[in-house]
């Protein structure tokens, strides 16, 4: 059996749209990370950027379960002594709603140069509108199991 290696020139561009208000944040982030890496394709190559472009709308309405709105915190460190900032999920929704989805997906991607390139294929918008209609993104539907 012969193994194949896909080159960057052979990769077809794919665009998907996710609505963050319809599914839980963690499950949605895992699906997005899989699409960005290209692991949903039979031509997956770990050393190439072969994933899809993903547009996420309604990030401000991302669903979480339990008491995460009050209890989940995001830490940011400026690099200076005493520079640790801590924001709750509720505060993040008000100030930086797109970062809720971006941080969840970023932490599921590889921690290297290729992972940073993959993250550039993620476009997150807090509202219902996005400027990527020319790319004709397809609403993502999970493959049926069974």
Automatic annotation (TrEMBL):
Region feature (Disordered): 127-146
UniProt entry tagged with the keyword Ribosomal protein:
yes
Q: Name one Pfam family in it.
A: Ribosomal_L13
BP term (GO), one = negative regulation of translation
Gene Ontology, cellular component aspect: cytosolic large ribosomal subunit
**Family assignment?**
Belongs to the universal ribosomal protein uL13 family.
Indicate what this protein is called per its UniProt record.
Answer: Large ribosomal subunit protein uL13
Kindly list the organism's lineage: Bacteria, Pseudomonadati, Planctomycetota, Planctomycetia, Planctomycetia incertae sedis
Q: Which gene name does the record give?
A: rplM
């Amino acid at each position: 059996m012969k193994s194949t290696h896909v080159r960057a020139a052979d990769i077809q561009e794919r665009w998907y749209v996710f609505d963050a208000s319809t599914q839980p944040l963690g499950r949605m982030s895992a699906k997005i990370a899989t699409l960005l890496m290209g692991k949903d394709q039979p031509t997956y190559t770990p050393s190439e950027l072969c994933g899809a472009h993903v547009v996420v709308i309604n990030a401000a309405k991302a669903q979480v379960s339990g008491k995460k709105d009050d209890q989940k915190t995001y830490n940011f460190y400026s690099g200076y002594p005493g520079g640790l900032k801590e924001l709750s999920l509720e505060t993040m929704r008000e100030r930086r709603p797109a970062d809720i989805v971006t941080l969840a997906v970023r932490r599921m991607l590889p921690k290297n140069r290729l992972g940073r390139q993959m993250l550039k294929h993620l476009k997150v918008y807090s509202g219902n509108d996005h400027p990527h209609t020319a790319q004709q993104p397809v609403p993502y539907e999970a493959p049926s199991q069974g």
